[in-house]
């Protein structure tokens, strides 16, 4: 045995050949071009065989790792080997030559070879040697054979990753179809494998999902296709018609040459069908924008919306949000219903601008005038942006979104929002409120065979852009817990990076359309997106940037909650019209709606605005009465004081008069006493004289009598 050095540009190989076959070799260099060509072809074949064996071994190792239940972390060596085997062609080397020798292949040159001159170190390419293009074609063909990407309708001939995909998506439970497997590992252009369907288990849709991709890659059609599949399975659907072209769900699709070619390549069993649809609008005000539809109004009350979500809509900071929470707390404690924005404005104004309200506010904490001013300004701005029509009664009953048609199809509730540019924040926050309302209303169901409802959250970046920490915590909590209510959420956005990691971690399924890498930022986002997929032999960076419109990479959880193989797919064609429905169809849908009479007219019930107006009026009346009473009291006090003063003066006057009278009476009494004394004295004097006179007369009489008796005579007068 001798060792022969064979060199071509970029390659070198040592071939072991028998001594008897080694003719015309000088300094280890072959001179016979025909022999060189023969040996080169045999070496390439041997190298390809070795590469195939290596790839098969690596794939077997990867399959074994997946079978052990840890598909996200296969053996590193197996993963690296698989990637190396599938990413780069094998190079001929000593091992390949030894393998060829052991198989009994003839590697010796013909006997008529001649020696080369000493200066010749490398042979010229032979005229009949295989070209580089032919070699590449051979390697690609061999690669196709090595990976086993054969296309059999029943999968009997599948090997390699195709077989793994077919096995990974052969679910025993009902499945929501997504698309047909797109073979990207075979040589040439990626081609669909007819009959190899990739889908999402219906029972795992409450683990939520993500549909992402650059603009124009087919996200809307994927949304429509998923909604159709869910409706056909009897699952109610809520979605937002941002572009105004999902009304076509109400009309069956029509065939075309393009569609026929697509169906022929994928093997999809397609039939044009329509689906039951209910058209809604955000609020009851006039709709604007191209293609605006006046569907059934969706409203809710300010109280049900809550301070956290409302703060998000109003763009308040943490301090202002706390102030708004105090306002809600006080209104609840007072039994004041916050139905619309004028109710909220009335409460804020009452607490911050009225004397009675300021006193009330002191009992729950203070709200600065600056915070109150910001809240009132933002409320006015929201009213001008259409919020006035959205907040009010009758409020939406979420059970009206979970209806089933008589033929067993889930009703597709489509929120028509043609003017999302001016209502983006309100729209996204409304969707979040609706999820929260579903969570509060629906009972616990665990893990049902199919979801009770699937909620498509379009333009998800509007929800998370600039959101506060409290708001994000509320979103994460709702997404995490609503699974037990049987509700599935599908976020639709342009890039997975638009969704916070805390939310992204809750999404069990993913349909990733093409991503672009035109800028460094795009490249970074692409790298992040690739890192979120389970490990696979696919070069996802290349696949995601090369996908066409209507193609995507799918990653789902299997029935045991494990990641199924990552699968590029051709998205199934929707069965309904892919675009707006005709005006007559839209009119028929609107006129036949059973919900529009229930929600069409706004009801203005007594609420905080009226109650506070009455309270303010009563307070004003009471204040007026108090003021009048105070004035009357003052007047009465003044009158009483004047009366008292007059009485005092009169009393003094009377006292003086009485004193004078007393003095007069005293004088008169004295005079009377003096008079009486004098009269008494005179009377006494008279009596004395009379007595004396009487006595004198009696004495004289007695004397005369005595004299007469004595003398018997009486002197005559």
What does this structure look like?
This protein has 22 helices and 16 strands. It has 717 residues and is an alpha/beta fold. Among the domains are: 2-148, no CATH class; 176-299 and 393-537 and 550-558 and 566-599, P-loop containing nucleotide triphosphate hydrolases (Rossmann fold, 3-Layer(aba) Sandwich), CATH 3.40.50. β5 and β6 (191-201) form a beta hairpin. α1 (33-67) packs antiparallel against α2 (76-87), α10 crosses α13 and α14 crosses α16.
Give me the secondary-structure topology.
Elements: E1 2-8, E2 11-17, E3 25-26, E4 29-30, H1 33-67, H2 76-87, H3 94-102, H4 132-147, H5 160-168, E5 175-183, E6 191-201, E7 209-212, H6 219-232, E8 237-241, H7 257-266, E9 277-282, E10 296-298, H8 302-305, H9 307-314, H10 318-333, H11 341-353, H12 355-362, H13 369-390, E11 412-416, H14 420-441, E12 453-457, H15 461-464, H16 469-481, E13 487-493, H17 501-504, E14 509-513, H18 520-531, H19 540-546, E15 551-555, E16 567-571, H20 583-591, H21 596-599, H22 608-711
Parallel strand pairs: 7-13, 7-14, 8-11, 8-12, 9-10, 9-11, 12-13
Antiparallel strand pairs: 1-2, 3-4, 5-6, 5-16, 14-15, 15-16
Helix pairs in contact: 1-2, 1-3, 1-4, 9-14, 10-13, 11-12, 11-13, 11-22, 14-16
């Amino acid at each position: 045995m001798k060792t022969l050095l064979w060199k071509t540009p970029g390659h070198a190989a040592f071939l072991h050949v028998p001594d008897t076959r080694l003719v015309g070799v000088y300094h280890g260099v072959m001179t016979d071009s025909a022999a060189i060509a023969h040996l080169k072809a045999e070496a390439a074949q041997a190298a390809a065989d070795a590469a195939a064996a290596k790839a098969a071994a690596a794939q077997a190792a990867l399959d074994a790792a997946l079978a052990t239940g840890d598909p996200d972390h296969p053996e590193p060596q197996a993963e690296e080997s698989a990637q190396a085997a599938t990413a780069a062609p094998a190079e001929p080397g000593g091992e390949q030559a030894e393998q060829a020798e052991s198989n009994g292949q003839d590697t010796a040159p013909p006997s008529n070879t001649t020696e080369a001159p000493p200066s010749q170190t490398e042979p010229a390419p032979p005229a009949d040697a295989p070209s580089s293009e032919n070699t590449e074609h051979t390697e690609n063909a061999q690669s196709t054979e090595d990976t086993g990407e054969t296309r059999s309708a029943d999968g009997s001939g599948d090997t390699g990753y195709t077989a793994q995909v077919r096995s990974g998506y052969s679910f025993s439970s009902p499945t929501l179809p997504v698309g047909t497997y797109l073979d990207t590992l075979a040589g040439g252009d990626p081609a669909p494998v007819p009959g190899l369907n990739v889908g999402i288990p219906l029972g795992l849709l409450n683990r939520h999902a993500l549909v992402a991709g650059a603009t124009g890659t087919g996200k809307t059609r994927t949304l429509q296709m998923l909604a159709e599949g869910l409706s056909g399975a009897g699952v109610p659907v809520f979605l937002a018609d941002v572009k105004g072209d999902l009304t076509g769900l109400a009309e069956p699709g029509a065939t075309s040459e393009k569609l026929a070619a697509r169906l022929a390549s994928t093997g999809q069993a397609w039939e044009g069908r329509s689906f039951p649809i209910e058209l809604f609008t955000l609020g009851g005000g006039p709709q604007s924008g191209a293609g605006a539809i006046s569907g059934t109004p969706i409203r809710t009350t300010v109280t049900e919306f809550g301070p956290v979500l409302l703060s998000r809509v109003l763009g308040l900071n943490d301090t202002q949000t706390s102030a708004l929470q105090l306002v809600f707390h006080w209104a609840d404690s007072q039994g004041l219903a916050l139905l619309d924005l004028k109710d909220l404005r009335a409460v804020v104004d009452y607490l911050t601008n009225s004397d009675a309200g300021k006193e009330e506010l002191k009992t729950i904490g203070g709200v600065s005038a600056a915070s109150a001013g910001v809240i009132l300004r933002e409320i006015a701005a929201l009213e001008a942006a259409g919020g006035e029509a959205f907040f009010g009664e009758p409020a939406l009953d979420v059970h009206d979104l979970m209806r089933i048609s008589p033929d067993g199809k889930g009703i597709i509730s489509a929120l028509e929002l043609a003017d999302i540019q001016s209502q983006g924040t309100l729209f996204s926050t409304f969707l979040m409120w609706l999820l929260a309302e579903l969570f509060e209303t629906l009972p616990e169901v665990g893990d049902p065979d199919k979801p009770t409802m699937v909620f498509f959250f379009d333009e998800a970046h509007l929800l998370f852009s600039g959101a506060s920490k409290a708001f994000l915590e509320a979103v994460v909590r709702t997404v995490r817990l609503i699974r037990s209510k049987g509700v599935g959420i599908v976020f639709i956005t342009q890039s997975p990076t638009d969704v916070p990691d805390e939310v992204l971690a809750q999404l069990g399924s993913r349909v990733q359309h093409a991503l672009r890498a035109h800028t460094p930022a795009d490249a970074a986002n692409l790298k992040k997106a690739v890192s979120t997929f389970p490990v696979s032999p696919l070069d996802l960076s290349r696949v995601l940037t090369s996908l066409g419109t209507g193609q995507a990479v799918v990653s789902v959880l299997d029935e045991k909650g494990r990641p199924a193989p990552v699968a590029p797919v051709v998205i199934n064609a929707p069965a309904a019209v892919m675009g707006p429905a005709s005006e007559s169809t839209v009119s028929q849908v609107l006129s036949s709606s059973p919900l529009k009479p229930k929600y069409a007219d706004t009801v203005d019930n007594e609420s905080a605005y009226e109650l506070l107006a009455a309270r303010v009026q009563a307070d004003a009346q009471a204040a007026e009465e108090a003021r009048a009473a105070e004035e009357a009291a003052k007047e009465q006090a003044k009158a009483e004081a004047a009366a008292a003063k007059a009485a005092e003066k009169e009393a003094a006057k009377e006292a003086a008069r009485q004193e004078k009278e007393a003095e007069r009476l005293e004088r008169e009494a004295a005079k009377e006493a003096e008079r009486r004394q004098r009269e008494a004295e005179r009377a006494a004097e008279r009596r004395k004289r009379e007595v004396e006179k009487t006595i004198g007369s009696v004495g004289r009489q007695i004397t005369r009598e005595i004299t007469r008796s004595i003398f018997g005579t009486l002197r005559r007068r």
